[in-house]
Structure formats: structure tokens, C-alpha cells
Amino acid sequence: MNRAERLTAVLDLLAQSGHVDVDDIVSTLGVSPATARRDLDTLAENQLLTRTRGGAVGHTVAYDLPLRYKHQQSAEQKQRIAAAASAIVPKGSVIGLCGGTTATAIANALGARADLAEPGPHASLTVVTNAINIAVQLAMRPQIKIVVTGGVLHARSYELVGGYSDLVLESVSLDIAFIGVNAIHPSLGPMTHDEREADVNTLMATRAARAVVVADSSKIGKKAFATMGTAARFGTIITDSGITDRQREELIDNGYEVIVA
Fold first, then answer.
1. Widest CA span of the chain, in angstroms?
2. Phi and psi (nearest 5°) for 66?
3. Mean pLDDT across 41-49
4. 86 and 32, same structural domain?
5. What is the residue-averaged pLDDT of the chain?
6. 166 and 246 share a domain?
7. 153 CB contacts (<8 Å, ≥6 apart)?
8. Residues 216/239, Cβ–Cβ less than 8 Å
9. Are both 139 and 20 inside the same structural domain?
């Protein structure tokens, strides 16, 4: 393992839990403690982590995020949904990620993928997002290209909304767009509480070859204020095993592909 590969491996360890110890690096990578410390110092100099006594922690904006991120981001259901979403993203894809706790979990899952961290002449993944927390979260991954839309910051969700977002989204082509929602109704489709978020999410979905709704099962069968389209636009839903047989059948009958994580 050369030095570049080793530094990437250290970042992979860091991504798993948000912190890493020198002993972890020594046991996992089979290097000396001195080498492990030098690698951590190098990554810290490049602002990819923050050194601590005996190890390091990852740069994160979690402490600045609204409460809903801190309390829900690590929910087991969202982690399963995120893993299923990451699994359908091939290396080299261009994907869209809206804001929200589930989309943030997907960003975590993508950031932890070893294949997306492999050095190469081109980006291993391109992420177009209107969520500034997701952009900052993935910025430590040099092989992931980040494109941030313009817009006015929505303080509740850390999403950029409004007409400036349209200027960027209308000029890109996405392979997959992952759209988080507040509710999804079998006939009315996915919905959010905020019409500005709905507008950006809808446009992001229309720019994608495949638009995927990511929603935990508690949101199925519910309604919210702003609609975004039906199965004609959002053909796939990824949810968790809390979905009932009846809910799944209703979604399938209305044209959705349902992936249960």
C-alpha cells in the first residue's frame, strides 16, 4: 500500500465513526505508530481532519445543524435506506441529493465507500446538491466532485431554495436523484411541508434519468402541503421494513417500484 492509498484508507476508517485512534490505524493498516501519526498530521495539514490526543476526529457540521439532524441522522431505518440507496449508485455516476436527514445519511454512506475514494484522474462520483451541510460533509473526499446550487438559505433545513437554484439545476443532467420527503401518498405522490423545497426537489427529479424517493415508513400514507408529482416522475421508493403489505401493494398499484431496506 503506497502513501496515497494509506491516507485514503485512514479517511475510510474516520468516516465509519467520525473518529480514529492511532492504535486503530496501526492494527488495521499494519503500519508503525510513527507512520500513523505522520499520516494523521498530513491529513490535518490538508484540513481533512482535526488532530486529537492519540488520534483524530472528522470535520463535521453536525453541531451546527438543526436539532432534527442531530437526533434523526443516525436512526437505524435511515441508515438502512442510505445503504440501499448507495448500493444502486455506480462509480462514475452523477447524482442529485436534496437536503434532509435521509439524504444526509446517504451522503454518509457514499462518503464511506472505499471504491469512491480510490485515486484516479477523474472524479469517482459527482454530487449535485442544494444542501450546504451535505456539500461540506463530502468536501473531505477529493475524489467526489461537489456541485452546489445557488439559492437562498433555508435555515431550518440548510437547503438552498429559490430561483437561483434553478439556474444550476436546469443546466445539469443527473443519472439518479435522491429526493427526501415529509410524506408520500400512493395516489398523490411525494410531498413536503415547504413549497420552496418542493420546487427545488421537483426540478432536481426532472433533471434525472431516475428519480428515487427516500422515505422511512412512518411517512407512507401521509400527506403534506406541497406536492411534487406522481410515479410518472418518481418511479422508485426506498423505504424500511416498517412498511405494511397493504401500503406496499398500494404503491405498486400506483406505479412505484418499492425497495425495502
1. 60
2. -55, 160
3. 80
4. no
5. 90
6. yes
7. 132, 159, 160
8. yes
9. no
